[in-house]
């Protein structure tokens, strides 16, 4: 197994965490390569030993058996975009705050490496969305969390007309619409009243942003659905984004098509932790705030 190490260069503690991981891998006799940008941050002695192990990020994805990504969820989303359809499993190490996608902390990496060596781990497949619009040419946006169509800088509400598999479903009046994967159900969609969805579910969530009608409710559809969102008027421009990292401005009338991507995201997961454990740890799910104060 060859490990490829990358991460968010702006995260405090990255240099120390990577240096410690390299020491662990060398003690274990494991093969590894390192993002050249991170290698340049390490000490002179470490840099000399890494001379033959440094790669640019695209080379790393091609060579890696597992891509180790240090940072927060944004770092994992970026790593997922780098991997794309290659299918390289991503092991997320949390240097951020919430860290829903990052499975491990830096202090857990020695156990993680030992478990991987002993085949005591699993690779979980997650739905990815693809989205396109004639307003941005032939570009296809891919999203692990969500595709969002919103009113951009306008103060006016917009009407987003939604069709599912060619059938008109509903018009949401408000600030826009979030189309989310199960993974993204705990991201932007959750803050707008969407449901928590088990990440391995074969569904897509549709959540209105600040709806101006009480009957504008979130919707769950099968992941085989083709979702067509149309903004005919109401704003000078519409913002179309994927995972908050890729975006484009559309001029109404604007149309966005969203569907399941032809590949999945593969995440390295431990076998002794369930998704419900994560919810309780990250969101304090089910805890009574009154009991916490006591």
Task: Explain what this protein looks like in three dimensions.
With 294 residues, the chain is an alpha+beta fold. It folds into two domains: 2-126 and 264-293, 3-Layer(aba) Sandwich (Rossmann fold), CATH 3.40.50; 129-260, Probable inorganic polyphosphate/atp-NAD kinase, domain 2 (Tumour Suppressor Smad4, Sandwich). Helix content is 24%, strand content 34%. Strands 8-7-18-15-10-11 form a six-stranded antiparallel β-sheet, with no helix packed on it. Strand 4 (66-71), helix 5 and strand 5 (90-94) form a beta-alpha-beta unit. Helix 1 (14-28) runs parallel beside helix 6. The protein is globular. The N and C termini lie far apart (48 Å). The model has no long low-confidence stretch (mean pLDDT 90).
Number of DSSP-assigned strands: 19
What count of helical segments does DSSP give? 9
Write down the overall geometry.
Answer: globular
In whole angstroms, how far apart are the ends? 48 Å
Which sequence of SSEs, written as H and E, runs from N to C?
A: EHEHHEHEHEHEEEEEEEHEEEEEEEHH
Task: Provide key terms for this protein.
single chain; 294 residues; alpha+beta; Rossmann fold; Tumour Suppressor Smad4; 2 domains; 6-stranded antiparallel beta sheet; 9 helices; globular
Record the SSE blueprint:
Blueprint: E1 2-7, H1 14-28, E2 31-35, H2 36-39, H3 44-49, E3 54-55, H4 57-63, E4 66-71, H5 73-83, E5 90-94, H6 109-117, E6 122-126, E7 129-132, E8 140-143, E9 146-150, E10 158-164, E11 167-174, E12 176-180, H7 188-191, E13 203-209, E14 219-222, E15 227-231, E16 238-242, E17 246-250, E18 254-260, E19 265-269, H8 275-283, H9 289-293
Parallel strand pairs: 1-2, 1-4, 2-3, 4-5
Antiparallel strand pairs: 6-19, 7-8, 7-18, 9-12, 9-16, 10-11, 10-15, 12-13, 13-14, 15-18, 16-17
Helix pairs in contact: 1-6
